[in-house]
């Protein structure tokens, strides 16, 4: 065999193989590499978007937490005000009840004093009649002298 012919046929086989590889093998490989490159880029973009979403979610959580704290504080302050108002109202009602009870007690005491005075006047009148009876050594009729006894009670 001739070395030049072998070299020539090897060159032809090489060029056919190169053309076949460039025509049928290389495009699917480059397409596969480009698809893989695109998937990696999409994955990285999704990861960046996830990080951004996470940051936004964290910001929203912080905002919601701050709102909840301020709302809780507001409710606590309002509850304290309401408790103070209820205590003041109860205190006013207790003072009014105290005043009513004191007035009733004073009125009852005045009525009791008046009854005691009337009873004392009656007792004094009876004692005066008994004393007069003993002084006069005769019997004095209390029914006959009722007007005189009433007059005596009024003077006492």
From TrEMBL:
InterPro entries: ATP_synth_B-like_membr_sf, ATP_synth_b/b'su_bac/chlpt, ATP_synth_F0_bsu_bac, ATP_synthase_B_chain. Its main location: membrane. Residues 47-123 form a coiled coil. Gene3D superfamilies: 6.10.250.1580, F1F0 ATP synthase subunit B, membrane domain (1.20.5.620). Pfam families: ATP-synt_B. Keywords: ATP synthesis, Cell membrane, CF(0), Coiled coil, Hydrogen ion transport, Ion transport, Membrane, Transmembrane, Transmembrane helix, Transport. It is a single-pass membrane protein. SUPFAM superfamilies: F1F0 ATP synthase subunit B, membrane domain (SSF81573). It is found in: Cell membrane; Endomembrane system. The chain crosses the membrane at residues 6-26. The keyword DNA-binding does not apply. Belongs to the ATPase B chain family. PANTHER family: ATP SYNTHASE SUBUNIT B, ATP SYNTHASE SUBUNIT B', CHLOROPLASTIC. HAMAP family: ATP_synth_b_bprime. F(1)F(0) ATP synthase produces ATP from ADP in the presence of a proton or sodium gradient. F-type ATPases consist of two structural domains, F(1) containing the extramembraneous catalytic core and F(0) containing the membrane proton channel, linked together by a central stalk and a peripheral stalk. During catalysis, ATP synthesis in the catalytic domain of F(1) is coupled via a rotary mechanism of the central stalk subunits to proton translocation. Component of the F(0) channel, it forms part of the peripheral stalk, linking F(1) to F(0). The b'-subunit is a diverged and duplicated form of b found in plants and photosynthetic bacteria. F-type ATPases have 2 components, F(1) - the catalytic core - and F(0) - the membrane proton channel. F(1) has five subunits: alpha(3), beta(3), gamma(1), delta(1), epsilon(1). F(0) has four main subunits: a(1), b(2) and c(10-14). The alpha and beta chains form an alternating ring which encloses part of the gamma chain. F(1) is attached to F(0) by a central stalk formed by the gamma and epsilon chains, while a peripheral stalk is formed by the delta and b chains. NCBIfam families: ATP_synt_b (TIGR01144), PRK05759.1-2 (NF004411). This is ATP synthase subunit b. It comes from Yanghanlia caeni.
């Amino acid at each position: 065999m001739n070395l030049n012919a072998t070299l020539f046929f090897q060159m032809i086989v090489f060029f056919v193989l190169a053309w076949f590889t460039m025509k049928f093998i290389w495009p699917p490989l480059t397409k596969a590499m480009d698809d893989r490159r695109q998937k990696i880029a999409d994955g990285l973009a999704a990861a960046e978007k996830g990080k951004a979403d996470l940051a936004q979610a964290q910001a929203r959580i912080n905002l919601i937490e701050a709102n909840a704290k301020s709302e809780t504080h507001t409710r606590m302050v309002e509850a304290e005000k309401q408790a103070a108002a209820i205590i003041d109202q109860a205190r006013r009602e207790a003072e009014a009840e105290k005043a009513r009870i004191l007035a009733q007690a004073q009125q009852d005491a005045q009525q009791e004093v008046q009854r005691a005075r009337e009873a004392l006047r009656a007792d004094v009148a009876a004692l005066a009649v008994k004393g007069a009876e003993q002084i006069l050594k005769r019997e004095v009729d209390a029914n006959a002298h009722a007007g005189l006894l009433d007059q005596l009670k009024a003077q006492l």
